[in-house]
Design brief:
Blueprint lengths: L2 H16 L5 E3 L5 E3 L3 E2 L12 E4 L3 E2 L14 E2 L3 E2 L14 E2 L3 E2 L14 E2 L3 E2 L14 E2 L3 E2 L14 E2 L3 E2 L7 H5 L4 E2 L3 E2 L4 H13 L1
Parallel strand pairs: 2-4, 3-5, 4-6, 5-7, 6-8, 7-9, 8-10, 9-11, 11-13, 12-14, 13-15, 14-16, 15-17
Antiparallel strand pairs: 1-2
């Protein structure tokens, strides 16, 4: 091991101590795998302090000033929280999340690069998203895309085991009637259940 690698590892150890990151393994490329949770929320960060590989538990950096998912783990076994930041893209984020994925309250215009698999809720509300293209095909919890600038529910997940919330968008009642999604919970929209029921009857009769 050369001197530069030793210095790099020393810096990694110091950073892990500073942010209470434990049970980690330093990979040859300088990234770290963590067996447990990583909590970097509310630290006034503008970028992640380390390059992460895999995290078996939760990975949380809510409430910072981070504008990119660069150096995020590729796989998160628990929940992934990146809410209340300044993200404009999900590029660099995990491809697989075992629990919830929260990217709400950012300035995202697209769901491109979002995880392929989400084992819990998928929350992308309070952004500037114009299309559901690239969203996960199956969501094991709730799917919340409210308070964006959506005009269509095209490309929505094929299956949502929990609730489907699309309130505070410009979604027509026709889109709700033609929604191609198997929803296990309730649908929340800007139209009442009775309006949707009557529109569905009209659609069938036509």
């Amino acid at each position: 091991m050369d001197n530069n690698t030793k210095i790099a590892e020393k810096e990694i150890v110091e950073i892990c101590q500073e942010y209470d990151i434990m049970n980690y393994y330093i990979n040859p490329d300088g990234s770290i795998d963590v067996d447990g949770d990583v909590d970097l929320s509310g630290k006034r960060l503008r970028q992640l302090p380390l390059k992460f590989g895999k995290v078996s538990g939760d990975f949380d950096f809510d409430d910072n000033y981070i504008s990119t998912l660069e150096d995020c783990p590729s796989v998160v076994g628990g929940n992934f929280y990146c809410s209340d930041n300044e993200l404009t893209s999900l590029e660099g984020g995990p491809s697989k999340v075992g629990g919830h994925f929260y990217c709400d309250c950012n300035i995202l215009a697209s769901l491109e690069f979002c995880p392929i698999e989400v084992g819990g809720d998928f929350n992308c509300y309070y952004n500037e998203i114009t299309s559901l293209e690239h969203c996960p095909g199956v969501v094991s919890g709730d799917f919340k895309c409210s308070a964006n600038v959506l005009t269509s529910l095209e490309f929505c997940p094929s299956k949502v085991d929990g609730d489907f919330d699309c309130r505070n968008n410009d979604i027509s009642i026709r889109d709700l009637v033609e929604l191609q999604c198997n929803i296990g919970g309730k649908i929340y929209s800007d139209h009442t259940p009775e309006e949707i029921r009557m529109a569905t009857i009209d659609y069938i009769l036509k």
